[in-house]
């Protein structure tokens, strides 16, 4: 998953979509060959992806191209011996990186409620002695909830169903898409999952201090933050990377500004992580609202970094 491969991935994907994907036969042959190559690479590096996912998404996960700017920041934030909490671990894209950075003396606690994602996560990181997996969602209380899996790829299950958002995301997928999830329109799947307070789960593991938290849970961030308030009240250095996705937050009836405000009130300094890895500070409510307005207009999301200490 070298940095050169990561940098080349975007331009190559654009070139392929503009020129080759328009031709069904070429696209079908390339897709079949791509699946074979991805399978071989997966076995070689010991990281499995979901064959039902679009090929471009699987390649991005294998090459480190997905959220590459955020990944480049991690060595400066995570050191050996630290304790990291990965909320919304998916299949272990970040978890594997965290495991390497904290080393044998550190710990990684990965939360992933989706049963298929959790199964692949277990295969990818289950043998690592410094990783503990919890097949739970994160909330402000322990409760049984429904997880809705409506997106064209497995990275977007949410604790709230939003048919409009699902249709919008699906419409962005080309009609020429060959991925099983896109072809069969695997919308509507839902799973009963147990949501937990992260504070309580960490306490059950004997963990009283956390150094780094990553959250990517499709709009449920406020519930997760409230459920780890005990950990966040403790002093010391703490960094949190979380996704700000206004469209995903809408079904939760949560104001997109809420996570920024909640963290700012607790002494965190918050910045947007740019595509080039540069940090753009969001020092006040006006700056945060400006970013939110831009994300709402484009229907996109951004990763934010909150630091304290």
Your description of this structure?
It is globular, with a radius of gyration of 19 Å. α1 packs antiparallel against α3 and α2 (24-45) packs parallel to α3. β9 (269-273) and β10 form a beta hairpin. The chain is built from 14 helices and 11 strands. The protein folds into 3 domains: 3-63, no CATH class; 68-141 and 203-308, Rossmann fold, CATH 3.40.50.150; 145-191, no CATH class. With 309 residues, it is an alpha/beta fold. The protein has an 8-stranded mixed sheet. It has a 3-stranded mixed sheet with strand order 4-6-5. The two termini are 32 Å apart.
Tags for this entry?
14 helices, 309 residues, Rossmann fold, alpha/beta, eight-stranded mixed β-sheet
- Number of contiguous helices: 14
N-to-C order of helices and strands: HHHHEHEHEEEHHEHEHHEHHEEHE
Largest sheet: 8 strands, mixed
SS content category: alpha/beta
Instruction: Indicate the radius of gyration in whole angstroms.
Output: 19 Å
- Kindly report the name of the CATH homologous superfamily of the largest domain: Vaccinia Virus protein VP39
- Strand order, largest beta sheet: 3-2-1-7-8-11-9-10
Identify low-pLDDT runs: none
Give the helix level as a range of percent: 40-55%
Please state the overall shape, judged from the principal axes of the Cα atoms: globular
Mean pLDDT value: 88
Give a count of the beta strands, DSSP E runs of length 2 or more: 11
Number of domains: 3
Compile the SSE list and pairings.
Elements: H1 3-19, H2 24-45, H3 55-63, H4 68-73, E1 83-87, H5 93-102, E2 107-111, H6 115-125, E3 131-134, E4 137-138, E5 143-149, H7 163-171, H8 180-183, E6 189-196, H9 198-204, E7 212-215, H10 221-227, H11 229-233, E8 238-244, H12 246-249, H13 258-264, E9 269-273, E10 279-281, H14 285-298, E11 302-308
Parallel strand pairs: 1-2, 1-7, 2-3, 4-6, 7-8
Antiparallel strand pairs: 5-6, 8-11, 9-10, 9-11
Helix pairs in contact: 1-3, 2-3
């Amino acid at each position: 998953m070298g940095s050169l491969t990561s940098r080349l991935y975007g331009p190559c994907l654009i070139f392929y979509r503009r020129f080759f994907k328009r031709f069904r036969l070429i696209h079908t042959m390339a897709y079949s060959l791509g699946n074979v190559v991805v399978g071989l690479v997966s076995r070689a590096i010991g990281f499995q992806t979901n064959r039902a996912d679009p090929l471009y998404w699987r390649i991005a996960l294998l090459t480190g191209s997905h959220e590459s700017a955020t990944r480049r920041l991690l060595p400066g934030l995570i050191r050996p011996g630290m304790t990291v909490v990965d909320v919304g671990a998916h299949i272990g894209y970040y978890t594997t990186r965290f495991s390497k950075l904290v080393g044998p003396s550190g710990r990684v606690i990965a939360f992933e409620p989706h049963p298929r994602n959790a199964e692949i996560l277990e295969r990818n990181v289950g043998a690592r002695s410094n990783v503990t997996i919890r097949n739970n969602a994160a909330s402000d209380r322990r409760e049984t909830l429904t997880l809705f899996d409506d997106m064209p790829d497995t990275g977007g299950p949410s604790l709230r169903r939003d048919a409009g958002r699902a249709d919008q995301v699906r419409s962005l997928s080309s009609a020429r898409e060959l991925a099983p999830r896109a072809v069969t329109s695997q919308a509507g799947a839902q799973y009963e999952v147990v949501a937990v307070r992260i504070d309580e789960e960490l306490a059950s593991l004997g963990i009283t201090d956390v150094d780094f938290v990553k959250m990517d849970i499709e709009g449920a961030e406020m519930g997760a933050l409230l459920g780890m308030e005990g950990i966040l009240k403790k002093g010391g250095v703490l960094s949190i990377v979380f996704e700000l996705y206004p469209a995903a937050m809408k079904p939760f009836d949560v104001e997109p500004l809420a996570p920024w405000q909640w963290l700012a009130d607790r002494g965190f300094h918050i910045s947007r992580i740019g595509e080039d890895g540069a940090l753009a500070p969001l020092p006040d409510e006006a700056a945060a609202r400006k970013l939110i307005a831009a994300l709402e207009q484009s229907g996109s999301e951004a990763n934010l970094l909150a630091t304290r200490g």
